[in-house]
Amino acid sequence: MRLLVVTNLYPPYYLGGYEVLCENAVAELRQRGHDIVVLTSMHGVHTPDRNDHLCRSLRLTRPWDQPAQGRQRWSSWRTTRHNYRETRVVLDQIRPELVFFWSQGRITLGPAYAAQDAGYRTAYTMNDFHWNQFVADSPLHTGMSRKVRAIERRLLPQLFLNDIDLTHTTCISKRLRTDLVREGVPVSQAEILYQGIPITQFPMRESPGMLHDPVRFLYVGQLHEYKGPHTAIAAFAALSKRTNLPMTLTLIGAGPDAYCQRLRAMVDKLGITPQVTFTGKVAIEALPAYYREHDIFLFTSIWPEPFGLTFLEAMASGIPVISTTVGGQAECLDDGVNCLTFTADDAASLAEGMHRLLLDADLRRAIVLTARHRIEQDFTMQAYINRIERFLINSISDKHGAD
Fold it and tell me: pLDDT tens track of the chain, all 403 residues?
């Protein structure tokens, strides 16, 4: 296959796991002999950067270090026009068999309309909720909001889905598909393709279920309130008082200054500063060692996360996971079998699960071995790429595609 992959961010300039997953998927598909060019934004560079395999020339509606405040329709329209033109130029140069859209957040639908208008076959994978911003007539819009959206749709049609063909679409979880459909994104027939991880990069630790002295708890993810790291801190403090066992908590990730300061103040107030380490963001290649060097992993997301990657990485690495179930991750979690689960944003519930694992070595070992087996069976990068590759080939050969 000759593919053009279009996405908003691409390593080494990225925010989280979905961009890393895109890079991994592209690398795996290239190893299988597919010819792939990636078109992405200029995030991380000052001027367009182009080579035979990667083009950083799309614009963002707003820099990623700034919140997406307001609709800013005219700014979005200018970005749409630029990205439409830039995509047409790249399409004319490489003439792909298929244009595969990974994420359109902040790069608008300009590239999607460019590919469709030029008659190219298109396919989409939806990894998060950003597609709801492109819906002009969502059932969730009411009153004046609905009227304003209707006017905007007539004046600025390329800001909205309108005629975008989503026949060939995947979602990374049933939860994401359900939530998108509820907001008016027409993907009820989207295929569910769960993510995978490069399992060879996450070898299992020695002595599964073993605890260090002191016991080492780990959180990996962005430091945002909706990710719940404050729940991990509160639960850790409660457990420290309950058991008096020597313990540490490591939080890997970065986030808004105000929230990070709030977390540090929380740690100070709870009197656990010597036990808690904020590492900031670490390099991708350093993460496997962090997993293996810790004993229990905390996945604390409060929002209905589409899926996630860090809990898969922890499971592969041989440390037991305690997780919320409000998002797509619940579709592969089995409480007491391959993990423990707790109530989102409930520090007492999390502390109870942490205490249970501390006391039960047999449970820790059983959870670790079952989780690793599940990853090996269903959630490797190879398994994910097999599914993606089949989906892309079918998207090219489908008689309903463009000619």
Answer: 999 999 999 999 887 778 888 999 999 999 999 999 999 999 999 899 999 899 999 999 988 877 765 556 778 889 999 999 999 999 999 999 999 999 998 999 999 999 999 999 999 999 988 898 898 776 655 555 656 666 566 667 788 888 899 999 999 999 999 999 998 999 999 999 999 999 999 999 988 889 999 999 999 999 999 999 999 999 999 999 999 899 999 999 999 999 999 999 999 999 999 999 999 999 889 999 999 999 999 999 999 999 989 999 999 999 999 999 999 999 999 999 999 999 999 999 999 999 999 999 999 999 999 999 999 999 999 999 999 999 999 999 985 444 3
**CA nearest to 194, candidates 312, 301, 273:** 312
- Top-level class of domain 199-378: alpha beta
Domain boundaries, the chain: 2-196+381-397, 199-378
Q: Give the CATH H-level superfamily of domain 2-196+381-397.
A: Glycogen Phosphorylase B; (3.40.50.2000)
| Distance separating alpha carbons of residues 310 and 316, to the nearest angstrom | 10
Domain pair 2-196+381-397 / 199-378, same fold = yes
Q: Which two tokens stand for residue 358?
A: 């501390």
